[in-house]
Records
---
Amino acid sequence: MIARSRMDAPAPSAPSRPSGLLRAARRARRRVRACAAALVVLLAPTGCGTASDARTSLPPVASGSEAPVRVTALGRLEPEDGIRRVAGPSGGVPVIAELRVDKGDLVEADQVLAVLDTQPMRSARVTRLEAELANARRELERASRLNTSRVMSDSRRDEWETRVRILRAQIREARAELERAFVRSPISGRVLDVHARPGERVGEQGLLELGNTSAMFAIAEVYEDDVGRIALGQRARVTSPVFDTPLTGVVDWIPLKVAKQDALGTDPAARKDARVVEVEIRLDDSEVAGSLTHLQVEVEIEL
């Protein structure tokens, strides 16, 4: 009976047709393939150009090995030929009796800047010698008349003639000493600073400082590695927070020696022992820079 019951069990049914969910998935896959094919057609290169043309149309990339078009350096402003420290006469330590100029004054070459306390004594010596010379000349004239009439000997007349020559030489010396009591300006320019006032001795700093501020220069401290690219006549640009607009100039002189850097910037990583060449740049307009001697500036020299 058990065997019969197994035989009487219904046979498994045949596989059924795909369900609606499966058919929807297949339709979605077909739509994805169609969209991908359309995208390929849109992105494919057209007949107007090739892939290589597309690559060549891209902007060129700048090369890092290109040489710079300018040299930059720190620097300072100075009058033409630098600052002159005017001292007193050599020998001894003179005392100022009269100061005839002050800071900011314009002076001419050979103008008296100060008078030393030795002036009265030296002036009196000149006056005394001039009086002695006048008397010696009168005695020489008298001796010459007496010698002509044979009243005075030739030797006596020669003595007075020698006396006159000696006094003339002494007066020249006394006048030279008197001139040393006056301190004169070696150049035309402006008084930048005064180091000794009336009643004070002239020290190591000298009496005062002068500068030709009518012709100002920017002294650019160019690194020794860059100086080979600097040439006379190159244009330069000088900037500072003090200036409303940059100053311009031209390279006027390239020194023949290397020095230690003096102008230091604010960068803590900058070299403090750099070797530089102080290139002189003549400014086109000295009016603004004339009152700013030793101002630190930044210089750009066009190559």
Note: The radius of gyration is 48 Å.
---
Amino acid sequence: MTKLFLGFFIYLLGAVSFHNFYVSTTSIRFVPDEKSLQITTQVFLDDFESVLQQNGHEKTKLIPEVSQEEIDILVEDYLRKNITFKAQEKTIDFEFLGKVYKSDVLIAYMELKMDSIQSSLSIKNTIFFDYLPDQKNIIHFKFASKRKSFLAVSSKSIFEIPKDFFDSYNLQIK
């Protein structure tokens, strides 16, 4: 019986270790003193490296020992194409602040300056959808004490934060 249990456990362990899942997390937090949305995106390094390589950057390695200037440009360019914000049908550009590696994760930092919000805010997150069909992107949005979370998948990647969500502040997007 012990051998059967051990065999089943090893089988399960092997099945779990070979099961791939693809997920990113984007946290967006309003900071009233700075009148900005602070954005943090986390992706697995190996997935991001594969996507960059599939985009024609075959020799790109996301490791600290490699010059980071070119990698920062590639990361920023990819994020600008795949995370977008819109208000009043106009795309709003974020400022790319940089990135760090933490274990097997790339963490990117961005900021979107705001003075007021005159309409709803649209968020689109298509990270890795072109390369990983099972990709899921979790988006957490925090504004004062209010929170909203979304799950972006290839069939639904655009989410809207209604204007009344921001009613506690009179803000305008720069």
Note: The helical segments are 2-18, 45-54, 68-82.
---
Amino acid sequence: MPIDESLFRASLVTKGRVTEQPHSVTLRGVKYNDRIYFSRHRPDSDWIKNVIVNSAVVVKYNDFSYSGIAKIVTDENLNQKISQLKYPSEKRAEEKRIAIEITLHEQL
């Protein structure tokens, strides 16, 4: 796994669902069970909407880029676990969130 930290900052690049152009956003990520997770409080962000339309993503981390496939997490227990890992000892760890799970494939 190219990302060793359990909590980190990275850029997530999705393909725009309308423009088909790369859309990059810097997020706090979580590594859990050899998968990468990004989450958000509300499902209205462009990057989540883009993943729903096109699951191919790129994760940029420490000057390296990795291709991957993303999917929406539907398991509420896993969503809660990701929130707890993302916000340790913070009240917002208990808020309901939407998360995506990414399986990384190769360094680009």
Note: Helices lie at 46-53, 76-86.
